[in-house]
Amino acid sequence: MGFNFRFPALAFIPTVATIAPEKRDYWFERLKMIKDRHYDHGRFQLQFSMNSTDKNYRDWMMPFKKWSFEKIRDYGQKFYNLGDRKITLIYALAEDTPFEADPIMELFDSQIFLVKITPLNPTSRVQQARMKTALRFDGSYPERIDAEIDKLERCGFEVILSIGSLDEIEVGSNCGQIAWSRVSSVSNL
């Protein structure tokens, strides 16, 4: 007996958001196969958490073994088929996070990838590091980010400013809030 990967809801779009952990190549190969077989023509969304255009800062922010920018690019180019949704590069930016358009424009194809900038969620790690979000919940952000967004858009990149609901933050359901608390509680056993 096989699985039925199709759901009757017309608006259902499966989404995978990932840091692209190392040694999961087989899993990602299977993900492409499932997308191609069951969710082609824009019915699947793949998102990579990038969080900085600086490798060292990204490693500090996400202290896990993960794919390089180049490996994400290479996989994205294989994953994407004409008619698919563009692959999202997510940047949850702190006020001092290195974020420059040039490395994105040099590595990624604007026909395959788009850039999404989100507020930094108040996870325990963010709070411990006393980080402050660059994209505020009122939609404002520093001029330096505005200049980089302008460069990206002039180069053909779609840039999305994605501000979630404050209600989600209050209940702790935003990206990283629940997951990190679960990891912390398990590691304290």
Description:
This protein has 189 residues and is α/β, with parallel strands linked by helices. It has one domain: TIM Barrel (Alpha-Beta Barrel), CATH 3.20.20. It has eight helices and five strands; from the N terminus they run E-H-E-H-H-E-H-E-H-H-E-H-H. The protein has a five-stranded parallel β-sheet with strand order 1-2-3-4-5, with helices on one face. Strand 1, helix 1 and strand 2 form a beta-alpha-beta unit. Helix 4 packs parallel to helix 6. The radius of gyration is 17 Å and the shape is globular. The protein starts with 14 loop residues before the first strand and ends with a helix. About 3% of the residues have low confidence.
Could you list some keywords that capture this structure?
189 residues; alpha/beta; TIM Barrel
CATH fold field value: TIM Barrel
Number of helical stretches of at least 4 residues: 8
Overall mean confidence score, pLDDT: 85
Q: What order do the strands of the largest sheet run in, or round the barrel if closed?
A: 1-2-3-4-5
CATH class membership: Alpha Beta
What's the number of extended β-strand segments?
5
Question: How large, in whole angstroms, is the Cα Rg?
Answer: 17 Å
Query: Which outline best applies?
Result: globular
By CATH, the superfamily comes out as Aldolase class I
Strand content: 5-15%
The oligomeric state is single chain
Question: SS-based structural class?
Answer: alpha/beta
CATH architecture: Alpha-Beta Barrel
Total domain count: 1
Percent helix range: 25-40%
Instruction: Profile the largest sheet.
Output: 5 strands, parallel
